[in-house]
TrEMBL record, chain A:
<dbReference type="GO" id="GO:0030488">
    <property type="term" value="P:tRNA methylation"/>
</dbReference>
<protein>
    <recommendedName>
        <fullName>tRNA (adenine(58)-N(1))-methyltransferase catalytic subunit TRMT61A</fullName>
        <ecNumber>2.1.1.220</ecNumber>
    </recommendedName>
</protein>
<keyword id="KW-0489">Methyltransferase</keyword>
<dbReference type="GO" id="GO:0031515">
    <property type="term" value="C:tRNA (m1A) methyltransferase complex"/>
</dbReference>
<dbReference type="InterPro" id="IPR049470">
    <property type="entry name" value="TRM61_C"/>
</dbReference>
<dbReference type="InterPro" id="IPR029063">
    <property type="entry name" value="SAM-dependent_MTases_sf"/>
</dbReference>
<keyword id="KW-0007">Acetylation</keyword>
<dbReference type="Pfam" id="PF08704">
    <property type="entry name" value="GCD14"/>
</dbReference>
<dbReference type="GO" id="GO:0160107">
    <property type="term" value="F:tRNA (adenine(58)-N1)-methyltransferase activity"/>
</dbReference>
Automatic annotation (TrEMBL), chain B:
<comment type="subunit">
    <text>Heterotetramer.</text>
</comment>
<feature type="compositionally biased region" description="Acidic residues">
    <location>
        <begin position="263"/>
        <end position="274"/>
    </location>
</feature>
<comment type="function">
    <text>Substrate-binding subunit of tRNA (adenine-N1-)-methyltransferase, which catalyzes the formation of N1-methyladenine at position 58 (m1A58) in initiator methionyl-tRNA.</text>
</comment>
<keyword id="KW-0819">tRNA processing</keyword>
<dbReference type="GO" id="GO:0030488">
    <property type="term" value="P:tRNA methylation"/>
</dbReference>
<comment type="similarity">
    <text>Belongs to the TRM6/GCD10 family.</text>
</comment>
<feature type="region of interest" description="Disordered">
    <location>
        <begin position="316"/>
        <end position="335"/>
    </location>
</feature>
<dbReference type="Pfam" id="PF04189">
    <property type="entry name" value="Gcd10p"/>
</dbReference>
<dbReference type="GO" id="GO:0005634">
    <property type="term" value="C:nucleus"/>
</dbReference>
Length: 308, 478
């Protein structure tokens, strides 16, 4: 296994994802002799994990069970230890497509942060591309490097511990795309431009505040970027539920025996609400939005460097 | 660098709308957006070059022009005294046409319009900016030629031909590619009726590594949009296709290549559809603009119609040659049949391994039967993503998948996308927004324990979807 290549069987040294139930999972480093505690009991790596197929159900000591999943950057994003606020797959998806990333692409990124986006970028540019990621916080840079090694992707990434606004990405004229998620991206636009290939490339800046976006757009224009475009994307999740609504008792017309209006005794057609005569309710399936949703992550500004 | 036979995109340099046309650079004359020009001069230039269309229809690299900053811009403070009576522009349609016919550059025309506008100097600076931008967009014939990509193709299709892609908005497509963990080396199953756009997007993210089996309804897969990506030939070596009509037989073990799906002349179907885009675009342009129908420039697959035989019946020698030709045709057809059978067997074998790394579905069909059957070919612990223009079929799909078991982390979602105008002191979301970009149902496969499916279902449901603590009477989990 690795984050850039699927494997079938769980091996010693793998990072696997333990899935306990809806939205409940955590990563685990598979190692001979170790045990992992879960609320359903103990998982013994040597007997329960190593050699089993990914996607297997594993019964824990207390009787409950879990599923062991192959890691993906998306699962990693949902489960990684946060050292900073991270980017989630919704933004990551749009960034990947709008930067036109694909196998072989060379990407520059700053800041590395907790490595959420980094893993996704590495996956997309593998096996022939490369990610140059810059992080000004020393411990975070080291932790990221360590994780890339553990996940079998270190050959695809170079972590540099420096300030991108002062010293750039450490490379020039080789990148197909540059991504910025830093407090003052306008200070790095010049460095971004020089990191990008001479023939051109794409740039993206992610900022939570509109004021940052304004300054960044101005800087992009000053440095000759074109097709400057700002947008935001939000995820709306729906829970699939069967809903029962009561039919109100509107009484009966004086002389008339048959009920008027909504007749719950009519046979139901396929797809239409099915009436429940006993309880006077109507059932239907609905995609119910969550009570609280993410209303804002940040603005994404994309632009193109062209030769003119 | 632009070469002959490249696939390229031409789009006007209006930042807001990337209204483009996909063209193959072997076709020299392009007509679109009320403009026509020859591509010849573009060859040899680097992708991303901006050209001006001269009066002769030739492309000329655009010179970097210093914006003529009219010093001390005379401008007003608000519009309280500006009356919109339609008479503020002194140049008439005919005047402007005359300027155009004289070959006057777009820039000059815009300048003329400004000078002949009685209200221009009363407008605020912002309003003047907006006015100039609008006129430039209309009169400056500037084209940029860019390399095709999923980004460009998906935004273009959504803007111009959403019906062909089931209204799949580009950000939704972006989600599918990421949620599906599409990357080099995968063995993907793709089922789409989006003119081949989704297939192309998947191919781009796989970079030619791995393999794809495209499931198709009817006689053959539509790959009109796929050809617009301009992939190198090797990308197609590991692209297989398999008819949906054979899926049941494959799953039940009764698959045979004896009866092939309806087999029109191989190229004809693909050609029809591949021409469809430009032709239909031309037609829709026709409808809206009532311009004389231009010739359809795209020609991707020359028809191999060897059947047209003009018979001069008297000529015996001719008849003999015709018989020879007939025999050759029959042989050729047999060869093609044999090829098709062979490819079909290969695709069937690949599917039968039941170890695909993922499944992507984006079609006009109801998703449930597709999912329930195609998931059988996917390995455990792999993602799958289904797109549907409507939410309700996915509600049903979700329920059926729960009943089937073998899937976890089911999520029904849609994305909301908003564009912004960012200008100093004028930043705000843009005025128009897409009402909907479709819905996605995604999940991960796990090992399906067929025997236990029923009895442990409630337990499984508890596992996979613990009931929320606030469980109201009316609110039953499915």
């Amino acid at each position: 296994m690795s984050f850039v290549e699927y494997g079938d069987t769980i091996k010693d040294g793998d990072t696997a994802i333990v899935f306990l139930g809806h939205e409940s999972m955590f990563p685990v480093k598979v190692q001979h002799g170790t045990v992992t505690q879960t609320k359903y009991g103990v998982i013994r790596h040597s007997t329960d994990l190593i050699g089993k197929k990914y996607g297997s159900k594993v019964t824990c000591s207390k009787g409950g069970w879990v599923f062991i999943l192959h890691p993906t950057p998306e699962l990693w994003t949902m489960n990684l230890p946060h050292r900073t606020q991270i980017l989630y797959s919704t933004d990551i998806s749009l960034i990947t497509m709008m930067l036109e990333l694909k196998p072989g692409s060379i990407v520059c990124e700053s800041g590395t942060g907790s490595g959420s986006l980094s893993h996704a970028l590495i996956r997309t540019v593998a096996p022939t591309g490369h990610l140059y990621t810059v992080e000004f916080h020393q411990q975070r840079a080291e932790k990221a490097q360590e994780e890339f090694r553990e996940h079998g992707v270190e050959h695809l990434v170079t972590v540099t511990n420096q300030d991108v606004c002062k010293n750039g990405f450490g490379v020039s004229n080789i990148a197909d795309a540059v991504f910025l998620d830093i407090p003052s991206p306008w200070e790095a636009i010049g460095h971004a431009k020089s990191a990008l290939k001479a023939e051109g490339g794409r740039i993206c800046s992610f900022s939570p505040c509109i004021e940052q976006v304004q300054r960044t757009c101005l800087a992009m224009e000053e440095y000759g970027f074109t097709e400057i475009n700002t947008l935001e994307i939000l995820l709306r999740v729906y829970n699939v539920r069967t809903i029962s609504l009561q039919i109100p008792d509107l009484g009966k017309a004086a002389e008339d025996n048959s009920s008027t209006g909504f007749d719950s005794s009519k046979p139901s057609h396929q797809g239409s609400p099915c009436a429940n005569l006993q309880q006077g309710t109507v059932q239907f399936k609905s995609g119910v939005p969550l009570r609280e949703v993410v209303g804002h992550t940040g603005y994404l500004t994309f632009a193109t460097k062209s030769l003119m | 660098m632009l070469k002959s036979l490249d696939t390229a995109w031409a789009h006007p340099l209006a930042a807001e709308n990337f209204v483009d046309q996909c063209v193959e650079v072997s076709v020299r004359k392009i007509i679109f957006e009320k403009q026509w020009f020859y591509l010849d001069n573009a060859i040899g230039h680097i992708y991303g070059t901006t050209f001006e269309v001269t009066s002769g229809g030739n492309l000329q690299p655009k010179q970097e022009v210093e914006e003529t900053t009219t010093e001390t811009k005379e401008a007003g403070t608000d519009n309280r005294n500006i009356v919109d009576d339609g008479k503020s522009q002194k140049l008439t349609h005919d005047d402007i046409k005359a300027l155009k016919d004289k070959g006057i550059k777009g820039q000059e025309i815009v300048q003329q319009l400004i000078e002949n506008s009685t209200t221009f100097r009363d407008k605020t600076e912002f309003a003047q900016d907006k006015y100039i931008k609008k006129k430039k967009k209309k009169y400056e014939a500037v084209i940029t030629i860019v390399k095709p990509s999923t980004r460009i193709l998906s935004t273009m299709y959504y803007a111009r031909e959403p019906g062909k892609i089931n209204h799949l908005r580009y950000d939704t497509l972006a989600q599918m590619l990421t949620l599906g963990n599409i990357h080099a080396g995968n063995k993907m199953i793709v089922m789409e009726t989006c003119a081949g756009l989704v297939l192309g997007a998947v191919m781009e993210r796989m970079g030619g590594y791995g393999s794809i089996i495209q499931m198709y309804p009817g006689g053959g897969p539509v790959r009109a949009a796929t050809s617009c990506f301009g992939f190198p030939k090797p990308f197609f070596d590991n692209l297989h296709e398999f008819p949906l009509s054979k899926v049941e037989s494959l799953l039940s073990g009764t698959f045979t290549t004896e009866t092939l799906p309806s087999d029109p002349e191989e190229n004809t179907l693909v050609e029809e559809e591949s021409n469809g885009l430009s032709e239909e675009k031309q037609t829709s342009l026709q409808e809206t603009e009532e311009e004389p129908a231009p010739e359809a420039p795209m020609e991707i697959n020359p028809a191999e119609e060897q059947d047209t035989m003009d018979i001069n019946a008297e000529d015996v020698e001719f008849k003999e040659n015709k018989e020879k030709e007939n025999k050759e045709n029959v042989r050729e057809k047999q060869m093609k049949q044999w090829e098709r059978r062979k490819k079909l067997k290969e695709a069937a074998a690949l599917l039968s391994e039941k170890n695909a790394d993922g499944l992507i579905v984006a079609s006009k069909f109801h998703p449930t039967p597709l999912l329930l059957s195609l998931l059988e070919f996917v390995a455990p612990s792999r993602p799958f993503v289904v797109y549907c223009q409507y939410k309700e079929p996915l509600l049903e799909c979700y329920t059926k998948l729960r009943e089937r078991g073998g899937v976890i982390n089911l999520k029904l979602s849609e994305t909301w996308l908003r564009n912004y105008q960012v200008l100093p002191d004028r930043s705000h979301p843009k005025l128009t927004m897409s009402g909907g970009g479709g819905y996605l149902l995604s999940g991960i496969t796990v090992i399906l324990e067929k025997g236990k499916a029923d009895s442990s279902n409630s337990e499984a449901l508890k596992m996979e979807e613990p009931s929320s603590k606030r469980c109201r009477l009316q609110d039953l989990p499915c």
